[in-house]
Description:
Elements: E1 2-3, E2 6-7, H1 11-14, H2 20-32, E3 38-39, H3 43-50, H4 54-67, E4 70-73, E5 80-83, H5 86-141, H6 151-166, H7 174-187, H8 192-205, E6 216-217, E7 221-222, H9 231-242
Antiparallel strand pairs: 1-2, 3-5, 4-5, 6-7
Amino acid sequence: MENANGIWIPGEVWELDLPPLHRVFLARLMALSKQDGTSWAGDEFLALSLRCTPQHVRKMRLQLEASGHIITHGYGHNRRLSVEVAPVVASNQRSKQPEAQKLQPEAQKLQPQLRQEATTVAESIEENRYSKEVVKTSARAREVVWPFNSDQFMNAWKEWEADRRERRIKPYTTRGLQTALHRLQQISQDNEHTAAQIIAQSIANGWQGLFPLNNKRDGNHDRPRGKDITPDDLARLVAKRYGPRFPPAH
């Protein structure tokens, strides 16, 4: 209904779950409707009345037609529009409630399966990330000369690199890796057991680099002593962290 001061929006239209301008659109059509409940108003006329473009009116009309709030009769100059409010709302309420009630037990049955699928996807993503990391590490490892090639030393080194990653320390470049291995060989005096202890010392103290044993850094600056972890201890740590996937091929 419309008067000189504006458009009156009926309560049943205002309560619809629609954007405000769509509700004004319906109220305007109802105000323009004849006794038979239809309106001959075109898109251009409605655009002038609603202070918007004909394209916007056309878009709203098509949306309201799709939702069942507007019914179009005829085409072109013979087109008439009628508003359907209460039947659409009542129909939606009647049809959706039983359907939701039927689907609820099925959804509850599917919850364990969905949780399992989500877990599987997460594990697959983690496995893929790990596989890429191993490939990258293995390719880089083939480019350097390792001071020791035993499984114990390789496990200790993998634990060292894992510790650096967890603390978000920038990974070694190929040149940096070779330099670190050469320094480790020097400060361990070419002793594999000492090299593993040096690695364990840095992990235990949260150091970013590798330093000689006996509380020394470069022979001058004292540092706190770390836990005396043997290569066997490191191998057990690696097995606990990564399972049977280590030692990697080298």
